[in-house]
Amino acid sequence: MDPVLNDFSIRIATTNGTGSQTSNMVLHRALIRMGLAASAKNLFPSNIAGLPTWYQIRVSPDAWQTMSEQWQVLLPLNPATIGKDLKESSPGTVVIDNSDWKTADSQFEGFIRYPVPFDQLARKIENAKLRPRLKNLIYVGVVAQLFEIPLDAVAGALGTIFPGKDSVIELNVDAAKIGFDYAAENLKKEDPWKYAPADQVGDKILIEGNEATALGAIWGGVSVVAWYPITPSSSVTESLEKHIARQREKDPEGRRRYVILQAEDELAAVGMALGAGWAGARSMTSTSGPGISLMAENMGLGYYAEIPTVIYDIQRVGPSTGLPTRTQQSDILQVAFHSHGDSRFPMLFPSSPEEAFSFSCQAYDLAEKYQIPVVFMSDLDLGMNSWISNPLQEPTRDFDRGKIATDEVVEKLEKWGRYRDVDGDGIPYRTIPGITLHPDIAHLTRGSGHDEDAQYSESPEVYAANLDRLARKIDGMVTDLPAPIREDGDGSLGVIAFGTTDWAVQEAIASLKATPSYLRIRSYPFHEEVDSFISDHDQILVVEQNQQGQMAQLLRLNNPHNANKILSATYFGGLPLSALFVRDSIEQQQGVEAK
User: Is-above-0.85 flag for pTM?
Assistant: First the structure.
Protein backbone atom coordinates (compact mmCIF):
# COMPACT_ATOMS: atom_id res chain seq x y z
CA MET A 1 0.00 0.00 0.00
CA ASP A 2 1.62 3.21 -1.21
CA PRO A 3 1.40 6.08 1.27
CA VAL A 4 -0.67 9.15 0.40
CA LEU A 5 1.17 12.22 1.65
CA ASN A 6 -0.45 15.48 2.71
CA ASP A 7 -3.68 15.02 0.79
CA PHE A 8 -6.59 14.14 3.08
CA SER A 9 -9.16 15.57 5.46
CA ILE A 10 -9.91 14.74 9.09
CA ARG A 11 -13.40 15.29 10.54
CA ILE A 12 -13.78 15.39 14.33
CA ALA A 13 -17.27 15.11 15.83
CA THR A 14 -17.62 16.14 19.47
CA THR A 15 -20.05 17.86 21.84
CA ASN A 16 -20.04 21.62 22.21
CA GLY A 17 -18.65 22.85 25.51
CA THR A 18 -16.40 19.85 26.24
CA GLY A 19 -13.13 21.63 25.50
CA SER A 20 -12.55 19.91 22.18
CA GLN A 21 -11.95 23.24 20.45
CA THR A 22 -8.52 23.54 22.06
CA SER A 23 -7.54 20.01 21.04
CA ASN A 24 -8.70 20.62 17.49
CA MET A 25 -6.70 23.82 17.32
CA VAL A 26 -3.65 21.92 18.56
CA LEU A 27 -3.92 19.48 15.66
CA HIS A 28 -4.40 22.29 13.16
CA ARG A 29 -1.46 24.32 14.44
CA ALA A 30 0.77 21.27 14.77
CA LEU A 31 0.32 20.65 11.05
CA ILE A 32 1.16 24.27 10.32
CA ARG A 33 4.33 23.90 12.37
CA MET A 34 5.20 21.04 10.03
CA GLY A 35 5.02 23.54 7.16
CA LEU A 36 1.61 22.39 5.95
CA ALA A 37 -0.93 25.04 4.95
CA ALA A 38 -3.76 23.20 6.70
CA SER A 39 -7.27 24.56 6.36
CA ALA A 40 -9.61 24.27 9.36
CA LYS A 41 -13.36 24.77 9.47
CA ASN A 42 -15.21 24.90 12.78
CA LEU A 43 -18.86 23.89 12.41
CA PHE A 44 -20.33 24.75 15.79
CA PRO A 45 -23.87 25.10 17.19
CA SER A 46 -25.49 28.26 18.50
CA ASN A 47 -25.78 27.13 22.13
CA ILE A 48 -23.09 27.23 24.82
CA ALA A 49 -22.89 23.49 25.51
CA GLY A 50 -24.46 20.16 24.70
CA LEU A 51 -25.16 20.22 20.98
CA PRO A 52 -23.02 18.54 18.29
CA THR A 53 -20.01 20.30 16.84
CA TRP A 54 -17.70 19.29 14.00
CA TYR A 55 -14.19 20.38 13.12
CA GLN A 56 -12.67 19.56 9.76
CA ILE A 57 -8.97 19.85 8.91
CA ARG A 58 -7.77 19.57 5.34
CA VAL A 59 -4.25 19.33 3.94
CA SER A 60 -3.77 19.34 0.17
CA PRO A 61 -0.76 19.53 -2.18
CA ASP A 62 -1.95 22.88 -3.55
CA ALA A 63 -2.74 24.27 -0.08
CA TRP A 64 -6.42 24.86 -0.88
CA GLN A 65 -8.34 26.58 1.92
CA THR A 66 -11.76 25.15 1.05
CA MET A 67 -13.56 22.38 2.93
CA SER A 68 -13.90 19.00 1.21
CA GLU A 69 -17.38 17.53 1.01
CA GLN A 70 -15.89 14.20 2.04
CA TRP A 71 -13.28 13.25 4.62
CA GLN A 72 -10.83 10.37 4.75
CA VAL A 73 -10.46 10.19 8.52
CA LEU A 74 -13.35 10.38 11.02
CA LEU A 75 -13.30 10.69 14.80
CA PRO A 76 -16.98 10.13 15.79
CA LEU A 77 -16.56 11.14 19.43
CA ASN A 78 -20.12 12.30 20.07
CA PRO A 79 -22.44 9.41 21.01
CA ALA A 80 -25.45 11.43 19.88
CA THR A 81 -24.21 11.67 16.28
CA ILE A 82 -22.04 8.59 15.76
CA GLY A 83 -24.66 6.88 13.61
CA LYS A 84 -25.09 9.95 11.42
CA ASP A 85 -21.33 10.51 11.19
CA LEU A 86 -20.69 6.95 10.07
CA LYS A 87 -23.57 7.01 7.60
CA GLU A 88 -22.23 10.17 5.95
CA SER A 89 -18.72 8.70 5.58
CA SER A 90 -17.59 6.95 2.41
CA PRO A 91 -16.53 3.29 2.40
CA GLY A 92 -12.86 2.96 3.26
CA THR A 93 -12.89 5.92 5.62
CA VAL A 94 -10.55 5.62 8.60
CA VAL A 95 -12.62 5.66 11.81
CA ILE A 96 -11.03 6.32 15.22
CA ASP A 97 -13.80 5.61 17.71
CA ASN A 98 -14.26 5.26 21.45
CA SER A 99 -14.34 1.50 22.02
CA ASP A 100 -15.62 2.01 25.58
CA TRP A 101 -19.05 2.85 24.11
CA LYS A 102 -19.52 -0.73 22.86
CA THR A 103 -20.92 0.44 19.54
CA ALA A 104 -22.15 -2.45 17.41
CA ASP A 105 -19.39 -3.80 15.18
CA SER A 106 -21.81 -3.90 12.27
CA GLN A 107 -21.79 -0.09 12.15
CA PHE A 108 -18.10 -0.15 11.21
CA GLU A 109 -18.41 -2.48 8.25
CA GLY A 110 -16.64 -1.08 5.21
CA PHE A 111 -14.41 1.22 7.28
CA ILE A 112 -10.81 1.00 8.47
CA ARG A 113 -11.40 1.01 12.20
CA TYR A 114 -9.01 1.98 14.98
CA PRO A 115 -10.87 1.41 18.28
CA VAL A 116 -9.45 3.33 21.24
CA PRO A 117 -10.67 3.03 24.86
CA PHE A 118 -10.65 6.77 25.46
CA ASP A 119 -12.53 6.60 28.77
CA GLN A 120 -10.10 4.05 30.22
CA LEU A 121 -7.09 6.00 28.96
CA ALA A 122 -8.44 9.19 30.53
CA ARG A 123 -8.06 7.59 33.98
CA LYS A 124 -4.30 7.74 33.48
CA ILE A 125 -4.46 11.52 33.69
CA GLU A 126 -3.36 12.19 37.26
CA ASN A 127 -4.98 15.62 37.64
CA ALA A 128 -8.60 14.58 38.31
CA LYS A 129 -9.86 18.16 38.31
CA LEU A 130 -8.53 18.87 34.81
CA ARG A 131 -9.19 15.37 33.49
CA PRO A 132 -12.44 16.24 31.61
CA ARG A 133 -10.55 18.91 29.63
CA LEU A 134 -7.27 17.08 29.19
CA LYS A 135 -9.08 13.96 28.00
CA ASN A 136 -9.47 15.45 24.52
CA LEU A 137 -5.68 15.63 24.12
CA ILE A 138 -5.67 11.83 24.06
CA TYR A 139 -7.23 11.79 20.60
CA VAL A 140 -4.67 14.37 19.52
CA GLY A 141 -1.95 11.90 20.50
CA VAL A 142 -3.65 9.02 18.67
CA VAL A 143 -3.95 11.08 15.48
CA ALA A 144 -0.37 12.26 15.85
CA GLN A 145 0.98 8.72 16.07
CA LEU A 146 -1.15 7.25 13.29
CA PHE A 147 -0.45 9.97 10.76
CA GLU A 148 3.11 10.91 11.81
CA ILE A 149 2.71 14.29 13.49
CA PRO A 150 5.72 14.71 15.81
CA LEU A 151 4.94 15.31 19.47
CA ASP A 152 7.32 18.25 19.28
CA ALA A 153 4.91 19.87 16.80
CA VAL A 154 2.05 19.19 19.22
CA ALA A 155 4.00 20.80 22.05
CA GLY A 156 4.84 23.77 19.84
CA ALA A 157 1.19 24.21 18.93
CA LEU A 158 0.24 24.16 22.60
CA GLY A 159 2.80 26.89 23.17
CA THR A 160 0.93 29.17 20.79
CA ILE A 161 -2.34 28.56 22.65
CA PHE A 162 -0.89 28.82 26.19
CA PRO A 163 2.10 31.14 25.74
CA GLY A 164 4.35 31.30 28.77
CA LYS A 165 2.35 28.67 30.69
CA ASP A 166 4.90 25.86 30.79
CA SER A 167 3.09 23.82 33.42
CA VAL A 168 -0.17 23.88 31.44
CA ILE A 169 1.66 22.91 28.27
CA GLU A 170 3.34 20.02 30.07
CA LEU A 171 0.01 18.68 31.36
CA ASN A 172 -1.47 18.77 27.86
CA VAL A 173 1.56 17.12 26.27
CA ASP A 174 1.44 14.36 28.87
CA ALA A 175 -2.22 13.73 28.02
CA ALA A 176 -1.44 13.63 24.30
CA LYS A 177 1.39 11.19 24.98
CA ILE A 178 -1.09 8.76 26.57
CA GLY A 179 -2.92 8.52 23.26
CA PHE A 180 0.32 8.50 21.26
CA ASP A 181 1.78 5.61 23.24
CA TYR A 182 -1.46 3.62 23.12
CA ALA A 183 -1.63 3.93 19.33
CA ALA A 184 2.01 2.96 18.93
CA GLU A 185 1.59 -0.16 21.08
CA ASN A 186 -1.90 -1.33 20.08
CA LEU A 187 -2.95 -0.04 16.64
CA LYS A 188 -1.65 -1.59 13.45
CA LYS A 189 -1.49 0.91 10.61
CA GLU A 190 -3.87 -0.23 7.85
CA ASP A 191 -4.47 2.97 5.87
CA PRO A 192 -2.30 4.94 3.41
CA TRP A 193 -2.69 8.40 4.91
CA LYS A 194 0.21 10.26 6.49
CA TYR A 195 1.69 13.70 6.94
CA ALA A 196 5.21 14.73 6.04
CA PRO A 197 6.95 18.08 6.57
CA ALA A 198 6.58 20.47 3.63
CA ASP A 199 7.21 24.08 2.72
CA GLN A 200 3.70 25.37 2.10
CA VAL A 201 3.69 28.05 4.78
CA GLY A 202 6.86 30.12 4.47
CA ASP A 203 6.34 33.54 6.03
CA LYS A 204 2.54 33.27 6.04
CA ILE A 205 0.51 33.84 9.19
CA LEU A 206 -2.52 32.16 10.76
CA ILE A 207 -5.34 34.56 11.55
CA GLU A 208 -9.12 34.73 11.78
CA GLY A 209 -10.87 37.05 9.35
CA ASN A 210 -12.56 39.04 12.12
CA GLU A 211 -9.22 39.73 13.77
CA ALA A 212 -7.74 40.91 10.48
CA THR A 213 -10.82 43.10 10.04
CA ALA A 214 -10.35 44.63 13.49
CA LEU A 215 -6.69 45.35 12.80
CA GLY A 216 -7.70 47.05 9.56
CA ALA A 217 -10.08 49.29 11.49
CA ILE A 218 -7.28 50.28 13.87
CA TRP A 219 -4.91 51.10 11.02
CA GLY A 220 -7.79 52.88 9.30
CA GLY A 221 -7.93 55.29 12.21
CA VAL A 222 -11.12 54.29 13.98
CA SER A 223 -11.57 56.05 17.31
CA VAL A 224 -15.23 55.47 18.20
CA VAL A 225 -16.70 51.96 18.26
CA ALA A 226 -20.37 51.45 19.11
CA TRP A 227 -21.69 47.91 18.96
CA TYR A 228 -24.14 45.33 20.18
CA PRO A 229 -23.01 41.68 20.49
CA ILE A 230 -24.22 39.27 17.82
CA THR A 231 -22.77 36.13 16.27
CA PRO A 232 -20.68 36.05 14.13
CA SER A 233 -19.52 39.67 14.36
CA SER A 234 -18.77 40.00 18.07
CA SER A 235 -15.14 38.99 17.72
CA VAL A 236 -14.53 41.98 15.43
CA THR A 237 -15.02 44.38 18.31
CA GLU A 238 -13.54 41.98 20.87
CA SER A 239 -10.36 41.67 18.79
CA LEU A 240 -10.27 45.41 18.23
CA GLU A 241 -10.52 46.09 21.95
CA LYS A 242 -7.65 43.68 22.60
CA HIS A 243 -5.31 45.18 20.02
CA ILE A 244 -6.12 48.90 20.06
CA ALA A 245 -4.99 49.30 23.66
CA ARG A 246 -1.49 48.25 22.59
CA GLN A 247 -1.42 50.09 19.29
CA ARG A 248 -2.98 53.45 20.12
CA GLU A 249 -0.88 55.80 22.22
CA LYS A 250 -2.54 57.76 25.01
CA ASP A 251 -2.71 61.54 24.96
CA PRO A 252 -0.29 63.66 27.07
CA GLU A 253 -2.73 63.49 30.01
CA GLY A 254 -2.74 59.70 29.90
CA ARG A 255 -6.23 59.40 28.45
CA ARG A 256 -7.23 56.89 25.78
CA ARG A 257 -7.61 58.18 22.23
CA TYR A 258 -10.52 55.88 21.50
CA VAL A 259 -13.94 54.92 22.84
CA ILE A 260 -15.56 51.48 22.73
CA LEU A 261 -19.10 51.26 24.05
CA GLN A 262 -21.87 48.68 23.96
CA ALA A 263 -25.23 50.12 23.00
CA GLU A 264 -28.64 48.83 24.05
CA ASP A 265 -29.37 47.53 20.54
CA GLU A 266 -28.17 47.75 16.94
CA LEU A 267 -30.27 50.79 16.04
CA ALA A 268 -28.70 52.72 18.91
CA ALA A 269 -25.22 51.42 17.99
CA VAL A 270 -25.33 52.73 14.43
CA GLY A 271 -26.88 55.96 15.71
CA MET A 272 -23.91 56.45 18.04
CA ALA A 273 -21.50 55.67 15.22
CA LEU A 274 -23.22 58.23 12.98
CA GLY A 275 -23.11 60.82 15.76
CA ALA A 276 -19.39 60.28 16.12
CA GLY A 277 -18.93 60.45 12.35
CA TRP A 278 -20.84 63.73 12.25
CA ALA A 279 -18.55 65.09 14.97
CA GLY A 280 -15.45 64.22 12.92
CA ALA A 281 -14.37 60.93 14.48
CA ARG A 282 -13.70 57.83 12.42
CA SER A 283 -16.40 55.51 13.70
CA MET A 284 -17.77 52.01 13.19
CA THR A 285 -20.25 49.40 14.32
CA SER A 286 -20.19 45.64 13.77
CA THR A 287 -23.20 43.39 13.33
CA SER A 288 -24.83 40.65 11.26
CA GLY A 289 -28.05 40.32 9.24
CA PRO A 290 -30.57 40.75 12.08
CA GLY A 291 -28.68 43.81 13.29
CA ILE A 292 -28.53 45.26 9.80
CA SER A 293 -32.32 44.94 9.66
CA LEU A 294 -32.65 47.01 12.84
CA MET A 295 -30.25 49.65 11.54
CA ALA A 296 -32.36 50.53 8.50
CA GLU A 297 -33.77 53.84 9.72
CA ASN A 298 -30.49 55.28 10.91
CA MET A 299 -28.62 54.04 7.87
CA GLY A 300 -31.09 56.04 5.78
CA LEU A 301 -30.30 59.07 7.93
CA GLY A 302 -26.60 58.57 7.29
CA TYR A 303 -27.22 58.32 3.55
CA TYR A 304 -29.48 61.36 3.28
CA ALA A 305 -27.74 63.61 5.81
CA GLU A 306 -24.38 62.45 4.38
CA ILE A 307 -22.60 61.28 7.50
CA PRO A 308 -19.59 58.95 7.33
CA THR A 309 -19.25 55.73 9.28
CA VAL A 310 -18.28 52.10 8.61
CA ILE A 311 -20.66 49.19 9.20
CA TYR A 312 -19.29 45.64 9.40
CA ASP A 313 -21.81 43.00 8.34
CA ILE A 314 -20.45 39.52 9.11
CA GLN A 315 -23.17 37.56 7.33
CA ARG A 316 -24.88 34.46 8.67
CA VAL A 317 -27.87 32.34 7.68
CA GLY A 318 -31.28 34.00 7.85
CA PRO A 319 -34.05 35.01 7.74
CA SER A 320 -35.02 35.94 11.29
CA THR A 321 -32.71 34.22 13.79
CA GLY A 322 -31.95 31.65 11.09
CA LEU A 323 -28.86 29.56 11.77
CA PRO A 324 -26.70 31.96 13.79
CA THR A 325 -23.51 29.88 13.50
CA ARG A 326 -23.67 29.00 9.82
CA THR A 327 -22.28 31.01 6.94
CA GLN A 328 -24.05 32.65 4.01
CA GLN A 329 -23.91 35.59 1.58
CA SER A 330 -27.55 36.56 1.88
CA ASP A 331 -27.56 40.24 2.89
CA ILE A 332 -26.56 41.57 -0.54
CA LEU A 333 -29.89 42.99 -1.69
CA GLN A 334 -30.86 44.10 1.81
CA VAL A 335 -27.73 46.22 2.16
CA ALA A 336 -27.53 47.53 -1.41
CA PHE A 337 -30.87 49.33 -1.08
CA HIS A 338 -31.24 49.44 2.69
CA SER A 339 -33.63 51.86 4.39
CA HIS A 340 -36.85 53.22 2.94
CA GLY A 341 -36.91 55.56 0.00
CA ASP A 342 -34.27 55.71 -2.72
CA SER A 343 -30.97 54.85 -1.07
CA ARG A 344 -27.93 52.89 -2.17
CA PHE A 345 -25.00 51.81 -0.05
CA PRO A 346 -21.45 50.98 -1.16
CA MET A 347 -20.27 47.48 -0.25
CA LEU A 348 -16.84 45.88 0.03
CA PHE A 349 -16.42 42.10 -0.46
CA PRO A 350 -13.17 40.71 1.01
CA SER A 351 -12.26 37.10 0.27
CA SER A 352 -9.31 36.63 2.62
CA PRO A 353 -7.83 37.96 5.87
CA GLU A 354 -5.40 39.98 3.77
CA GLU A 355 -8.27 41.73 2.01
CA ALA A 356 -10.27 41.93 5.24
CA PHE A 357 -7.44 44.03 6.64
CA SER A 358 -6.88 46.25 3.61
CA PHE A 359 -10.59 46.77 2.79
CA SER A 360 -11.37 47.50 6.43
CA CYS A 361 -8.62 50.07 6.50
CA GLN A 362 -9.75 51.64 3.21
CA ALA A 363 -13.39 51.81 4.28
CA TYR A 364 -12.74 54.83 6.51
CA ASP A 365 -11.23 56.86 3.67
CA LEU A 366 -14.21 55.96 1.49
CA ALA A 367 -16.74 56.85 4.18
CA GLU A 368 -15.19 60.26 4.82
CA LYS A 369 -14.39 61.17 1.24
CA TYR A 370 -17.90 60.32 0.04
CA GLN A 371 -19.70 61.18 3.30
CA ILE A 372 -21.71 57.98 3.52
CA PRO A 373 -21.99 54.78 5.57
CA VAL A 374 -19.77 52.17 3.91
CA VAL A 375 -20.73 48.53 4.49
CA PHE A 376 -18.03 45.88 4.82
CA MET A 377 -19.55 42.55 3.72
CA SER A 378 -17.78 39.57 5.26
CA ASP A 379 -19.27 36.25 6.39
CA LEU A 380 -18.98 33.72 9.18
CA ASP A 381 -16.62 31.46 7.22
CA LEU A 382 -14.07 34.22 6.74
CA GLY A 383 -14.76 35.91 10.06
CA MET A 384 -14.69 33.05 12.57
CA ASN A 385 -12.36 30.50 10.97
CA SER A 386 -8.56 30.59 11.01
CA TRP A 387 -6.89 31.12 7.64
CA ILE A 388 -3.37 30.82 6.27
CA SER A 389 -2.68 34.33 5.04
CA ASN A 390 0.03 36.49 3.59
CA PRO A 391 1.33 38.96 6.18
CA LEU A 392 -0.88 42.02 6.55
CA GLN A 393 0.65 45.02 4.81
CA GLU A 394 0.64 48.24 6.83
CA PRO A 395 -0.74 51.09 4.69
CA THR A 396 1.69 53.86 3.79
CA ARG A 397 -0.78 56.47 2.54
CA ASP A 398 -2.14 59.32 4.63
CA PHE A 399 -5.81 59.39 5.59
CA ASP A 400 -8.15 60.86 2.98
CA ARG A 401 -10.64 62.89 4.99
CA GLY A 402 -12.39 64.32 1.96
CA LYS A 403 -13.81 67.81 1.61
CA ILE A 404 -13.84 69.58 4.97
CA ALA A 405 -15.16 73.13 5.33
CA THR A 406 -12.32 74.98 7.03
CA ASP A 407 -12.33 78.79 7.37
CA GLU A 408 -10.02 79.03 4.37
CA VAL A 409 -12.28 76.83 2.23
CA VAL A 410 -15.45 78.72 3.11
CA GLU A 411 -13.78 82.06 2.32
CA LYS A 412 -12.87 80.83 -1.17
CA LEU A 413 -16.30 79.44 -2.00
CA GLU A 414 -18.61 81.70 -3.96
CA LYS A 415 -21.47 80.62 -1.71
CA TRP A 416 -21.40 78.22 1.21
CA GLY A 417 -23.96 75.43 1.41
CA ARG A 418 -23.64 72.20 3.33
CA TYR A 419 -25.12 70.21 0.46
CA ARG A 420 -23.92 72.38 -2.41
CA ASP A 421 -22.03 70.59 -5.19
CA VAL A 422 -19.37 73.10 -6.20
CA ASP A 423 -17.43 71.00 -8.72
CA GLY A 424 -19.86 68.48 -10.20
CA ASP A 425 -18.72 65.33 -8.38
CA GLY A 426 -21.78 65.29 -6.13
CA ILE A 427 -19.70 65.66 -2.96
CA PRO A 428 -20.30 68.80 -0.87
CA TYR A 429 -17.98 70.18 1.81
CA ARG A 430 -18.80 68.77 5.23
CA THR A 431 -18.39 70.50 8.53
CA ILE A 432 -16.69 69.20 11.65
CA PRO A 433 -17.56 70.95 14.92
CA GLY A 434 -14.65 73.10 16.12
CA ILE A 435 -12.77 73.05 12.81
CA THR A 436 -14.10 76.40 11.63
CA LEU A 437 -15.52 79.47 13.28
CA HIS A 438 -16.79 81.05 10.07
CA PRO A 439 -20.28 82.49 10.69
CA ASP A 440 -21.68 81.22 7.37
CA ILE A 441 -21.35 77.52 8.13
CA ALA A 442 -24.06 77.26 10.78
CA HIS A 443 -26.76 74.81 9.65
CA LEU A 444 -29.10 72.12 10.93
CA THR A 445 -28.23 68.54 9.98
CA ARG A 446 -31.54 67.03 9.02
CA GLY A 447 -32.94 63.82 7.64
CA SER A 448 -35.98 65.62 6.26
CA GLY A 449 -36.17 67.38 2.90
CA HIS A 450 -33.44 69.99 2.48
CA ASP A 451 -31.89 72.19 -0.15
CA GLU A 452 -28.25 72.93 -0.92
CA ASP A 453 -28.01 75.21 2.12
CA ALA A 454 -29.47 72.55 4.47
CA GLN A 455 -32.68 74.56 4.76
CA TYR A 456 -35.93 72.61 5.08
CA SER A 457 -37.65 72.19 1.74
CA GLU A 458 -40.57 70.23 0.34
CA SER A 459 -39.99 71.41 -3.20
CA PRO A 460 -40.23 68.50 -5.69
CA GLU A 461 -37.52 70.08 -7.82
CA VAL A 462 -35.15 70.55 -4.89
CA TYR A 463 -35.77 67.01 -3.65
CA ALA A 464 -35.20 65.46 -7.08
CA ALA A 465 -32.01 67.46 -7.61
CA ASN A 466 -30.72 66.33 -4.22
CA LEU A 467 -31.36 62.64 -4.95
CA ASP A 468 -29.73 62.97 -8.37
CA ARG A 469 -26.66 64.51 -6.75
CA LEU A 470 -26.49 61.67 -4.21
CA ALA A 471 -26.72 59.14 -7.04
CA ARG A 472 -23.95 60.95 -8.91
CA LYS A 473 -21.81 60.81 -5.78
CA ILE A 474 -22.37 57.07 -5.33
CA ASP A 475 -21.62 56.35 -8.99
CA GLY A 476 -18.42 58.36 -8.70
CA MET A 477 -17.18 56.15 -5.86
CA VAL A 478 -16.28 53.43 -8.36
CA THR A 479 -12.92 55.04 -9.10
CA ASP A 480 -11.85 54.51 -5.49
CA LEU A 481 -13.46 51.12 -4.81
CA PRO A 482 -11.47 47.86 -5.07
CA ALA A 483 -11.52 46.81 -8.72
CA PRO A 484 -12.64 43.34 -9.80
CA ILE A 485 -10.02 40.70 -10.61
CA ARG A 486 -10.36 39.07 -14.03
CA GLU A 487 -8.82 35.87 -15.33
CA ASP A 488 -9.60 35.05 -18.96
CA GLY A 489 -10.08 31.44 -19.95
CA ASP A 490 -11.42 29.39 -22.84
CA GLY A 491 -14.92 29.21 -24.22
CA SER A 492 -17.96 31.43 -24.01
CA LEU A 493 -18.78 30.86 -20.33
CA GLY A 494 -17.85 33.45 -17.74
CA VAL A 495 -17.98 32.75 -14.00
CA ILE A 496 -18.54 35.50 -11.43
CA ALA A 497 -18.10 35.17 -7.67
CA PHE A 498 -17.31 37.33 -4.66
CA GLY A 499 -16.12 37.05 -1.07
CA THR A 500 -15.14 33.65 0.30
CA THR A 501 -16.83 31.91 -2.63
CA ASP A 502 -13.62 32.74 -4.49
CA TRP A 503 -11.71 29.93 -2.77
CA ALA A 504 -14.00 27.19 -4.03
CA VAL A 505 -14.22 28.72 -7.51
CA GLN A 506 -10.45 28.93 -7.83
CA GLU A 507 -10.04 25.28 -6.84
CA ALA A 508 -12.86 24.13 -9.09
CA ILE A 509 -11.54 25.98 -12.15
CA ALA A 510 -8.04 24.57 -11.57
CA SER A 511 -9.47 21.05 -11.84
CA LEU A 512 -11.32 21.60 -15.13
CA LYS A 513 -10.07 20.71 -18.59
CA ALA A 514 -12.09 23.47 -20.23
CA THR A 515 -11.31 26.57 -18.19
CA PRO A 516 -13.97 29.31 -18.13
CA SER A 517 -13.14 32.96 -17.65
CA TYR A 518 -13.47 34.17 -14.10
CA LEU A 519 -14.25 37.56 -12.56
CA ARG A 520 -14.20 38.20 -8.82
CA ILE A 521 -16.27 41.18 -7.76
CA ARG A 522 -14.76 43.07 -4.83
CA SER A 523 -17.09 46.05 -4.45
CA TYR A 524 -20.40 47.66 -5.29
CA PRO A 525 -21.29 49.91 -7.15
CA PHE A 526 -19.81 47.83 -9.94
CA HIS A 527 -16.80 48.85 -12.00
CA GLU A 528 -17.11 49.12 -15.78
CA GLU A 529 -14.99 45.97 -15.97
CA VAL A 530 -17.97 44.01 -14.63
CA ASP A 531 -20.15 45.21 -17.51
CA SER A 532 -17.36 44.42 -19.99
CA PHE A 533 -16.93 40.90 -18.64
CA ILE A 534 -20.64 40.19 -18.96
CA SER A 535 -20.72 41.59 -22.49
CA ASP A 536 -17.70 39.52 -23.51
CA HIS A 537 -19.35 36.15 -22.75
CA ASP A 538 -22.41 34.33 -24.05
CA GLN A 539 -23.38 33.04 -20.60
CA ILE A 540 -22.52 34.23 -17.10
CA LEU A 541 -22.70 31.88 -14.13
CA VAL A 542 -22.81 33.71 -10.78
CA VAL A 543 -21.73 31.46 -7.90
CA GLU A 544 -23.01 32.60 -4.52
CA GLN A 545 -24.18 31.40 -1.13
CA ASN A 546 -27.84 32.29 -0.89
CA GLN A 547 -31.09 30.88 -2.24
CA GLN A 548 -32.31 33.77 -4.35
CA GLY A 549 -29.17 34.48 -6.39
CA GLN A 550 -28.96 37.96 -4.92
CA MET A 551 -25.72 39.04 -6.62
CA ALA A 552 -27.07 37.75 -9.94
CA GLN A 553 -30.22 39.83 -9.40
CA LEU A 554 -28.12 42.91 -8.67
CA LEU A 555 -26.07 42.30 -11.82
CA ARG A 556 -29.22 41.92 -13.92
CA LEU A 557 -30.56 45.16 -12.50
CA ASN A 558 -27.36 46.94 -13.47
CA ASN A 559 -27.12 45.20 -16.87
CA PRO A 560 -30.71 45.00 -18.17
CA HIS A 561 -29.54 44.58 -21.78
CA ASN A 562 -27.63 41.43 -20.77
CA ALA A 563 -29.98 40.20 -18.04
CA ASN A 564 -31.02 37.04 -19.90
CA LYS A 565 -27.48 35.70 -20.03
CA ILE A 566 -26.87 35.95 -16.24
CA LEU A 567 -27.49 32.61 -14.51
CA SER A 568 -27.18 31.51 -10.88
CA ALA A 569 -25.43 28.64 -9.11
CA THR A 570 -26.56 28.91 -5.50
CA TYR A 571 -25.63 26.98 -2.39
CA PHE A 572 -27.40 27.97 0.81
CA GLY A 573 -26.99 25.11 3.30
CA GLY A 574 -24.88 27.17 5.68
CA LEU A 575 -21.64 25.17 5.34
CA PRO A 576 -18.56 26.64 3.64
CA LEU A 577 -18.84 26.28 -0.13
CA SER A 578 -17.07 23.27 -1.64
CA ALA A 579 -15.11 23.12 -4.88
CA LEU A 580 -17.10 20.05 -5.89
CA PHE A 581 -20.37 22.03 -5.90
CA VAL A 582 -18.79 24.73 -8.05
CA ARG A 583 -17.17 22.25 -10.42
CA ASP A 584 -20.45 20.39 -10.94
CA SER A 585 -22.27 23.69 -11.56
CA ILE A 586 -19.72 24.83 -14.14
CA GLU A 587 -19.58 21.47 -15.91
CA GLN A 588 -23.37 21.33 -16.05
CA GLN A 589 -23.49 24.74 -17.71
CA GLN A 590 -20.65 23.84 -20.07
CA GLY A 591 -22.60 20.71 -21.02
CA VAL A 592 -25.70 22.77 -21.77
CA GLU A 593 -23.66 25.07 -24.01
CA ALA A 594 -22.05 22.12 -25.79
CA LYS A 595 -25.46 20.78 -26.74
Answer: yes
